[in-house]
C-alpha cells in the first residue's frame, strides 16, 4: 500500500519525522480507531486524530450540543446547539478530510451493545464521563481483545492510561478502578467545574498516545507501556505516572473471568 501524491503532501510533516516516515503514515491510514465520547476530551482529540490520517474512525456519542459545552468542546459552535454530537462530528471530519472513512453511533452505550461498537477496532479511545460507561467499554475491549486508551478530566486534573487486559499479565481499566463504580454515581464537570484548556491538554496528550499505539510495529515512537497511567496537573503544572498491576481477581481480565 502506498499514499497518492495529494496524501503525501498533506502528511509531509509526519513523513519527514524518522519516528513515523512513509511506512508509519501508511500504517495510520490502515487503522481503525473507535472514539467514545465527543465532549471535552473527544472533541479536541478528534481534530488531531483526523489530522493524523487515521484511516477509519467510528464516533460514538448519544448526546446533543448544549451552550455550556462550548467552553471546552472545540468542534461545535452556536449553530450546533440542540443537534446530535455524533452527526456533527462526522460532518466536521468529512469536511476536514474527505479521504477518511467515518462511521457513527448515537446509541447510549450499555453492557449489551458495547461489544458491537469495539469489535474489530485497532484501538478504542474512551473519553466518556461516567464510570458505568467506562467499565462497560473496558470489559468489551477485554472480551473482544481490543486495546483501550482511557482519558478523563475534571477541574485542573486529568489522567490518560493505556490498557490491554486481554494480553497475558496486562491490567485492564477495571483493575484500576475496581467494581465499585458500575453504577452511574460519579461527579461531573457540571458539579465540579473544568478549565477548558485542561480538557484540551488531556485530549491532545491522549491523541499522541493513540498515534504511538497505532504506530507499533511500523513507526519508532517507543515502546507501548500497557497499564501505565499518566496524571496531568494543570494547576501546578506537572505530570507524574504510575503502573497498574493486573488484579488476579478482576472479573473482566483476571482468573475469575
Describe the structure.
Helix content is 34%, strand content 18%. The protein is α/β, with parallel strands linked by helices. The protein has an eight-stranded mixed sheet with strand order 3-2-1-4-5-6-7-8, sandwiched between helices. 46% of the residues are buried. The model has no long low-confidence stretch (mean pLDDT 94).
List the helices and strands and how they pair.
Elements (H helix, E strand, L loop, with lengths): L4 H6 L1 H4 L5 H9 L2 E5 L5 H10 L4 E5 L24 H12 L4 E5 L8 H5 L4 E4 L4 H14 L3 E7 L2 E7 L9 H5 L11 H4 L3 H19 L13 E6 L4 E6 L14
Parallel strand pairs: 1-2, 1-4, 2-3, 4-5
Antiparallel strand pairs: 5-6, 6-7, 7-8
Query: What is the strand content?
Result: 15-25%
Fraction of residues in H or I helices: 25-40%
H/E element sequence: HHHEHEHEHEHEEHHHEE
Structural class estimated from helices and strands? alpha/beta
Provide a count of the helices.
10
Q: How does the major sheet shape up?
A: 8 strands, mixed
- How far from one another are the termini? 39 Å
Question: Any descriptors?
Answer:
single chain; eight-stranded mixed beta sheet; 257 residues; alpha/beta
Amino acid at each position: 500500500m502506498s499514499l497518492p501524491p495529494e496524501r503525501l503532501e498533506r502528511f509531509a510533516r509526519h513523513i519527514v519525522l524518522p519516528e513515523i516516515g512513509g511506512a508509519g503514515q501508511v500504517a495510520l491510514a490502515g487503522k481503525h480507531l473507535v472514539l467514545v465520547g465527543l465532549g471535552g476530551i473527544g472533541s479536541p482529540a478528534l481534530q488531531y486524530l483526523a489530522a493524523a490520517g487515521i484511516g477509519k474512525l467510528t464516533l460514538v456519542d448519544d448526546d446533543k450540543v448544549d451552550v455550556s459545552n462550548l467552553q471546552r468542546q472545540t468542534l461545535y459552535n452556536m449553530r450546533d446547539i440542540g443537534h446530535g454530537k455524533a452527526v456533527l462530528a462526522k460532518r466536521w471530519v468529512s469536511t476536514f478530510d474527505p479521504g477518511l472513512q467515518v462511521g457513527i453511533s448515537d446509541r447510549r452505550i450499555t453492557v449489551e451493545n458495547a461489544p458491537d461498537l469495539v469489535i474489530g477496532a485497532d484501538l478504542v479511545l474512551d473519553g466518556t464521563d461516567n464510570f458505568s460507561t467506562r467499565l462497560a467499554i473496558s470489559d468489551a475491549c477485554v472480551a473482544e481483545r481490543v486495546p483501550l486508551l482511557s482519558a478523563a478530566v475534571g477541574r485542573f486534573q486529568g489522567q490518560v492510561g493505556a490498557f490491554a487486559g486481554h494480553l497475558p499479565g496486562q491490567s485492564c481499566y477495571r483493575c484500576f478502578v475496581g467494581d465499585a463504580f458500575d453504577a452511574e454515581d460519579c461527579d461531573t464537570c457540571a458539579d465540579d467545574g473544568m478549565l477548558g484548556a485542561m480538557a484540551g491538554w488531556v485530549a491532545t496528550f491522549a491523541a499522541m498516545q493513540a498515534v504511538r499505539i497505532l504506530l507499533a510495529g511500523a513507526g519508532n515512537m517507543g515502546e507501548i507501556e500497557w497499564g501505565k497511567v499518566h496524571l496531568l496537573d494543570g494547576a501546578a503544572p506537572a505530570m507524574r505516572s504510575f503502573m497498574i498491576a493486573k488484579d488476579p481477581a478482576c472479573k473482566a481480565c483476571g482468573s475469575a473471568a
